[in-house]
Amino acid sequence: MIQYTTAWNPFVQELQAILHEHNKNLNYLDNPIGIHREKVRRLQQSLSTPTQLPVLNPEDLQTVIDTLQLDTIEILRLHTALLATAIQRMLSNRVHPDDAQLAAQQLQPTILSALIRYTNENGLGNTRGGDLDPIDDDDFDRIFSAITNTFDRGEEALNMSYYTTSYEEQLRTAQYADTCFKNAQKGLQQMSGDIRLLSGWQTLNDSVQEALTGVNNRLRELGE
Questions:
Q1: Residues in Cβ contact with 98 at an 8 Å cutoff, skipping those fewer than 6 apart
Q2: Which domain holds residue 88?
Q3: pLDDT in tens, the chain (224 residues)
């Protein structure tokens, strides 16, 4: 029986648990998997920060699945955690963060059971398996908070476009992801020249460009 505890980010908590089961930790995502260390830092930080709920994009998540050769249950645990994180993010805009966290935590075992039952009946299907800035971490998060939150919502929605079974929901979430990434791109482009010289800006801008490519590919897959 999988036990759920009280880290703020359900997805990172589950990812960390699975990594530990493979004798790895979150730093393994940076080296040797190759996920940028700034993204890994944000994932680590989100375990104790209620306002930040980053997730991995579908390509990075698939790289983790392939590298660790995760089994079906482990993949479903990660997909469950993505859904729980999406629920927590949605509720956080309406209720106290503690209540949003508790609701997501209580739903997580139920979601996992439902996904396992669905997978047993239908197969896995669409359930797809440098130095930091010269400013400190707190300054980075303060400057980029609104943009990273928008970007996180986009990555979450892009993931959902693969994991939902309804075509209408797949298209809706992919379109929402596209809007989020475009808004993040606009926010980055509107920043001052000094900010745009920071490596953190460049890293986030690269991530947004990569995400826009990914969501455009997904929209084409969906016939848009």
A1: none
A2: 1-129
A3: 344 446 889 999 999 999 999 999 999 999 888 888 888 999 999 998 887 889 998 889 999 999 999 999 999 999 889 888 888 887 876 778 888 888 888 888 888 888 888 788 777 654 444 332 344 445 455 557 778 888 999 999 999 898 877 899 999 999 999 999 999 998 888 877 667 777 778 888 898 999 999 999 999 999 98
This prediction's pTM: 0.64
Tokens 């949003």 sit on residue: 100
User: Residues, the chain, total?
Assistant: 224
Do 37 and 143 reside in the same domain of the chain?
no
Of 111, 103, 60, 42, the C-alpha closest to 82 is: 111
Please tell me the total count of domains within the chain. Answer: 2
Of 129, 156, 188, the residue that ends a domain is 129
